[in-house]
């Protein structure tokens, strides 16, 4: 079984190492040995983290993926192009493909799935979401007989590391980001992580699998964590909450559409996701019969991601040997994605107000005007420093947003100090 | 795709309900409708939890499983016979089988796997361990490219419920058991659960999959929770630990054999398994590349177990339609199971001692004599009520057992108040 590898970076070099070190085990599990047919790299001379036979290296990725003797292509270069063209070329030749490319799958997964269907090969992508955590296979196969209602998870390790540091040490966002960069948890340009693009791509993939529909990254409502202050974190802590960047894919109450979103949210400290520290990932799945399930583990890193790639490699190799194919993309439900405004959520808001009679009544009236009911109100401080901290009951995001706009216009409200969605309870 | 169901109890009736309610979804996911061909029951007249067309009911299970038109047999009657004969009969006729029967798989799985191989059908059993939690498929497939070193889990909901009650309320074992029975978490005869038989069967199945070897229930070292006292629980609590009934499957340090055991153990309250409350299950998997993974969810119950059964049903139906088979039993590693004495663990012991000079020295000498080193010692109380609480470093279970025997013989030791293994840290 001949394998072409596209990319020899952090993940690719671990794939090469593990294919060599575990060659006997892999052969026994597949029923045939795996052989590295070639490794496509950008430059030939570069020093690599792993020993590779120089004869295997090539800069001509296109020739490699279409070579007659190649059975399986592993793509770990990332990005849209040339990854897409290479994967499509391989699939069109009937080869099977294993990829970790969440950005591509979330932007244009349908092109890849169609190429796989036409070519008759497999397209597997467990490594694209939550690194080593077996999550896509359980969603795609184990829960194939169930009805998933919600997927709620921490799927970006960098932002979880930053938020965890802010929570445990009181650090500012910038200080926590710098620490994450120094430790290699965040990249020099952290945009993809801290602005939620990475998590949004994963949310799109998860939503597609969970709801048997097609969801693309641009349909995902996305907010990052750059605006979160040490005060937000401390205020959440004081109320028994912790702030996490969540990816949430949920069926609407009538079951006819889904909401897919990535944004920071407060969750109760008693929620199992609250205990997910550092760069770990964890995903909650709520299904009608199975109930609540949680999957936890390392969400990134060379070896964990390579573990997921190799698991897929074994599966597609077994399939090829048996002349079979794994499950195809399942989009029969074709649920539409509703806009963020229709999503039902809750909201925590801190208002700097004047401490005088009638203030609470005016504020409460504004909530009522938008049909948002209040769960708890707490006043902190008094006189000029009075702050009202309010947590709402469930309402549409549009109603909550309109309420916030209304509050900002009230003369008794000096400032809206912080607004944050609340998830994971009620 | 015609399905014969064996058993119409708690799980079987949920399978029937879900097959009817989700018929369209299941058909879309499989590519063909599932049809219930018949339901084998012990008595025809009994009132059932679900509406079943009386024409489908039969007491002749053997005729049902070998009927020409049946494609897939779902076995949820449990126990060794007649389940084994029926499954073997079905597999021998080339049918695929989905079973939740942990006892049979752990006692004589090889007979079933061989029948599946010979007949060319699938044998799937996700529901046999940890109910709805997708665990076997991840072990068998997602981690197929990794090297699992340890599986550590809470796989019996009844005992977890009892131990959790003892921990949270200070109840005795008997009171907690009665409460569990009243709530339906424990059976009238709780032996299979509280003596660890159920967990041991699951441990055997997990070990076989994780280590690509054959492990039977009788090779599993098994201790139940009936001897655990409120004092043990309180003492663990005082030290920052909680007592859980754990199933542990671990490779030996040299990688040449595995230890498989079920026994109560103290784990630190900071360990993720410590937070698993009530009747929930959770399993930690430690793999070389993937690192630590955790799977959490409902470990039992009609609907969760039926969810796992239906996931398997969709998978084997897809396989049949494609003329393919899922992964076979993988036992190529053929690791042997070493006896409990060779297992490396740690130990917590509380000794009632006389409070006089030289006592600690004599006790420490006894540990040293067996090459067991001490991690912490704490003396509680004094005078006649002095108690030494000792936690050892890692040592073989044989050495720890010999140390305990030696301590019991010391004249300065009035009594060994409690002995408990410690897992999940160091």
From TrEMBL, chains A, B:
InterPro entries: ACT-like_dom_sf (IPR045865), ACT_dom (IPR002912), Asp/hSer_DH_NAD-bd (IPR005106), HDH (IPR016204), HDH_cat (IPR001342), HDH_CS (IPR019811), NAD(P)-bd_dom_sf (IPR036291)
Listed PANTHER family: HOMOSERINE DEHYDROGENASE (PTHR43331)
Keywords: Amino-acid biosynthesis, Metal-binding, Methionine biosynthesis, NAD, NADP, Oxidoreductase, Sodium, Threonine biosynthesis
Pathway linked to the protein: Amino-acid biosynthesis; L-methionine biosynthesis via de novo pathway; L-homoserine from L-aspartate: step 3/3; Amino-acid biosynthesis; L-threonine biosynthesis; L-threonine from L-aspartate: step 3/5
Designated name of the protein: Homoserine dehydrogenase
Pfam families hit by this protein: ACT, Homoserine_dh, NAD_binding_3
Binding-site positions, L-homoserine: 187
Reaction it catalyzes: L-homoserine + NAD(+) = L-aspartate 4-semialdehyde + NADH + H(+); L-homoserine + NADP(+) = L-aspartate 4-semialdehyde + NADPH + H(+)
Positions of NADP(+) binding: 6-13
GO biological process: methionine biosynthetic process; threonine biosynthetic process
Similarity-based family: Belongs to the homoserine dehydrogenase family.
The EC number(s) this enzyme carries: 1.1.1.3
Keyword NAD: yes
Gene3D superfamilies: 3.30.70.260, Dihydrodipicolinate Reductase, domain 2, NAD(P)-binding Rossmann-like Domain
Cofactor(s) required for function per UniProt: a metal cation
Catalytic residues (UniProt): 202 (proton donor)
Annotated positions binding NADPH: 102
Role played: Catalyzes the conversion of L-aspartate-beta-semialdehyde (L-Asa) to L-homoserine (L-Hse), the third step in the biosynthesis of threonine and methionine from aspartate.
Domain ACT: 348-421
GO MF entry, a single one: NADP binding
Protein's UniProt keywords contain Metal-binding: yes
Species this chain originates from: Nonomuraea endophytica
């Amino acid at each position: 079984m001949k394998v072409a590898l596209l990319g020899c970076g952090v993940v690719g070099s671990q794939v090469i190492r593990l294919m060599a070190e575990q060659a006997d085990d892999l052969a026994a599990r597949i029923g045939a040995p795996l052989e590295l047919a070639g490794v496509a790299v950008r430059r030939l001379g570069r020093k690599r983290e792993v020993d590779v036979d120089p004869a295997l290296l090539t800069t001509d990725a296109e020739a490699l993926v279409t070579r007659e003797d190649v059975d399986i292509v592993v793509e770990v270069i990332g990005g849209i192009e040339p990854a897409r063209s290479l994967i499509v070329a391989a699939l069109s030749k009937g080869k099977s493909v294993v990829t970790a490319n969440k950005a591509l799958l979330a932007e244009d997964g349908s092109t890849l799935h169609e190429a796989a269907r036409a070519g008759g090969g497999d397209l597997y992508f467990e490594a694209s979401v939550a690194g080593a955590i077996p999550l896509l296979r359980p969603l795609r196969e184990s829960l194939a007989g169930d009805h998933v209602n919600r997927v709620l998870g921490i799927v970006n390790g960098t932002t979880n590391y930053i938020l965890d540091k802010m929570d445990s040490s009181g650090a500012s966002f910038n200080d926590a980001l710098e620490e994450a960069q120094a430790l290699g948890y965040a990249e020099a340009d952290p945009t993809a992580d801290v602005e939620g693009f990475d998590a949004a791509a994963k949310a799109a993939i998860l939503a597609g699998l969970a709801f048997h529909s097609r969801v693309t990254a641009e349909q995902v409502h996305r907010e990052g964590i750059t605006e979160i202050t040490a005060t937000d974190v401390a205020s959440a802590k004081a109320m028994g909450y912790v702030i996490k960047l969540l990816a949430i894919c949920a069926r609407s109450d009538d079951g006819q559409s889904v909401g897919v979103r990535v944004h920071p949210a407060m969750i109760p400290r008693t929620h199992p996701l609250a205990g997910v520290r550092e760069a770990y990932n964890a995903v909650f799945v709520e299904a009608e019969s199975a109930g609540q399930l949680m999957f936890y583990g390392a969400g990134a890193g060379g070896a964990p991601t390579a573990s997921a790639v190799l698991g897929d490699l074994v599966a597609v190799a077994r399939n090829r040997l048996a002349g079979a194919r794994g499950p195809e993309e399942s989009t029969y439900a074709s649920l539409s994605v509703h806009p963020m405004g229709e999503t039902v959520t809750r909201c925590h808001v801190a208002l700097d107000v004047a401490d005088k009679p009638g203030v609470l009544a005016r504020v409460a009236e504004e909530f009522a005007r938008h049909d948002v009911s209040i769960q708890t109100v707490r006043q902190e401080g008094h006189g000029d420093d009075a702050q009202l901290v309010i947590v709402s009951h469930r309402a549409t995001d549009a109603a909550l947003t309109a309420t916030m706009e209304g509050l900002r216009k009230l003369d008794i409200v000096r400032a809206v100090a912080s607004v944050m969605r609340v998830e994971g309870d009620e």
